[in-house]
């Protein structure tokens, strides 16, 4: 037996007990006549003491050799500490060591194994197994485990059945790019890794499973933006015989349960916002509603004056920055530079100071009177002491730009408090979105999403206006889940494929099994999927998912620790009848 | 709202309540003036009644149109049944329907959706979503969910943390064949899908996670034997600072918990058997110990007589078939034919009847006296009325053959009772096994398994004799789990790679990150993995895993429902810089 206790559990009540501990040397302080060693394991740190008077000489000498991260086993007596450490739970005691064995030595780690490490991202990823020893990473992984356990227990209690769906499925050109897997037993053919178990969960509904969930890895071969991973985890859910209202209630319940159990936060009924309102008021379909700064549309009050920039813009829109009147001219100029960066892409920014005396001072004073500007303040809810920032341009672009500015300013103003939680349903998403590149409509959610029944007729005349029974769950400015009511009859599904530009043959080849299934008695159904990586990060008060993934990949899709992907044995390629078209 | 209740919950206490139900038409009996419909959902069956006197005419007519598997919604009043059905929980009541709407019609299913269906395996797989509507399949999936929930809750309670390890990893030529995934962002390079998270769980131990588990999909591109799947699920576990004893206790605890919670069976401490003994007594490293029929080795008593076949055999070994003396000559001949089938491969079988009067009658009477045969009976524990079956040949082959015969006879004799559970640890597995094909030793478990420390020196002189700290958990003749104590120092690991024929460069290229990790303070560790598919099947009293997988693949690795794998778009191949070397 390697240990009688772990390094986090000994207390004053254990004094005089003989114990055996195992763990890593966190640090060692050698005063010559006395050596203190902090012994660490997953559960905590316990102080060991070796002292010239009480410890046998041989053990004393062995203790002097201990380096950082050595793995050791000690036996000794729990004694009271002379100077107690109130910062750690084991701070009342230490172990007077009578037996020491070095289980494994350790090279000096390439970065310090401490809460605030000196290691940069790259080196920590290469030695992720050392990074995981650090409390922030270790605790994030334990936190993730707790969340998934809560999710599973809650959903199981609610009658959901976790069903494993296959990973080796079929490639579909629709949507994002698939990772594919060549089949050796079916030469020339390929499996694809699932982007989500979408069709399988719908088939489970056709199969009468009624309430399904699965915590499952999904795969997308996309060019990686920051904080995207080629493999990611979903809490995937589906229910039969439900309307949108049933689904919102079910998963609002789950989310409320998590906030309570994990964060100790009680949240009232989640507000619901129409997609169109979210776009109009926040420029964004996942608004952070922990703070105000909602958009004020200014077309009515800022156009038809002599300011040409506004007059020709599709949308003129502003936000009031609380206390922003205190910004210096230099600070405001920096803000203007910020919105003009290519990542944001605004061509400029108009501003208006709201002075404490009720007067206004704008960057376009020659075009606008005090009365005009008072209307700007009214539309943006600006109060004396605020700063109004105004952008203009094509509606969608300018909304995106102003939304980015709103989030940036809120961040700077400390309005995005990590321990405040403001969940929100965004509902009535458009069914289709126009794709500039291919010059056609794509399914905004996916091709199985049901249009609002009373808007079906608009598909022919004004497809962009058709709304869907589709919804997102938004938490603190992040989409943590999304879903829809599905089409459950073959006729509507065939019509949708047609609108999405699938020929009948293509639709049959790719989704034939689903359309077949719909002929044999498909129930009304719908569902939702949470992005687990992000959900966990946000519940932990963070926004970077990488910290909550044990072995993440970098932005080039590489695992730098195991050095994957890697070239393949030519024998393996031959077995798959594949040939590389590039020279390596 | 589609329903106020489900189809399994209404009882006599609900009489006179107005309810709404949704579900599938299981069957409909139309007597003209009265129609009964069995409405089915996941939760049960409820009888609906439409009758000419009490039901509006329009609804009556609509009800006449209902076919099997139509999806309907009804509203009505719960009334007492005239003739109650004690076989179903809702058998006391029926619903007098006042409102009916057909949510979806259904084509006639290609097989009957009943417990005993008329559908063969192939058609049921093609329409798996219909097969899942059948109770046996549906209940198997729900059972699987219950088992995984119990596993997760038990291990979490015991301090294990579920950590997700990556699916896109690196190919290693050792062991079974990998499925590979071409990388588009790293042209010419490939990921591999994990055969198990082995190295990652070891790295998590190096990372101090202490106790890890994961219920995880694994992938092996092997030629599929019956009841093997290219993707399968493991309960993967690892612990640090443990010896073999700690691991056996931890997972005996889990297994005992499952048997109790899932099957209501209390099992005492699991017996432990040496691998060598299992092979000697059962010819098999996963013996079914629910019944006797242990092997009796007969070399000593059957050789050195005039029977040349036995004299030249490496092993002569027999089993006593309880009551087998009652077999007719014809039945015994059939048994001989059975062992001579190519799947078994015995060249023949000697038998000896144990008569009730204590005399013997063997097929080789001219070589053996009654005294000789009495010794056979003694060695095989044969009693009067039994039949001794004896095979001979090369040790390993003849053990395998006799083991197959033992299992077959036990099956026929009804000794393999599905509801009796006899778990067993088989321990001290050999470290290496000789591979005839490559003419070298392979790791029997995997190359990270620790040899027994006191046998390390044998590696040079008699590698086949070296035992490992490796163990299997066997249940009712099936291996349900297996694991080992791992090597945790770089030196021993390097030595093992050397014995397994890896050059230093190869070892470094494939496992360099693990060997590097071992330099930074790796703790002693070990673990175990359960095959979840099989575990669930056996707990359910079955041995076919396919029934416990929602969407299994066939023996050619195909999903016949979605028709995967499939040819790829040439555009996709181009993006991956791949070319097929065969014409499709």
From TrEMBL, chains A, B:
MF-aspect GO terms: aspartate-tRNA ligase activity
All copies of domain Aminoacyl-transfer RNA synthetases class-II family profile, residue ranges: 144-552
InterPro entries named in the record: Aa-tRNA-synt_II, aa-tRNA-synth_II, aa-tRNA-synth_II/BPL/LPL, Asp-tRNA-ligase_1, Asp-tRNA-ligase_1_N, Asp/Asn-tRNA-synth_IIb, AspRS_core, GAD-like_sf
Transmembrane segments: none
Sorted UniProt keywords: Aminoacyl-tRNA synthetase, ATP-binding, Cytoplasm, Ligase, Nucleotide-binding, Protein biosynthesis
Enzyme Commission number, as recorded: 6.1.1.12
SUPFAM superfamilies in the record: Class II aaRS and biotin synthetases, GAD domain-like, Nucleic acid-binding proteins
Binding site for ATP: 220-222, 229, 479, 531-534
Keyword Disulfide bond part of the UniProt annotation: no
Amino-acid positions noted as binding L-aspartate in the UniProt annotation, renumbered to this chain: 174, 220, 445, 486
Entry's localization field: Cytoplasm
Region (Aspartate): 198-201
PANTHER family to which the protein is assigned, alphabetical: ASPARTATE--TRNA LIGASE, MITOCHONDRIAL, ASPARTYL/LYSYL-TRNA SYNTHETASE
Family that this chain belongs to: Belongs to the class-II aminoacyl-tRNA synthetase family. Type 1 subfamily.
Physiological role: Catalyzes the attachment of L-aspartate to tRNA(Asp) in a two-step reaction: L-aspartate is first activated by ATP to form Asp-AMP and then transferred to the acceptor end of tRNA(Asp).
HAMAP family registered for this protein in UniProt: Asp_tRNA_synth_type1
Protein name: Aspartate--tRNA ligase
Gene: aspS
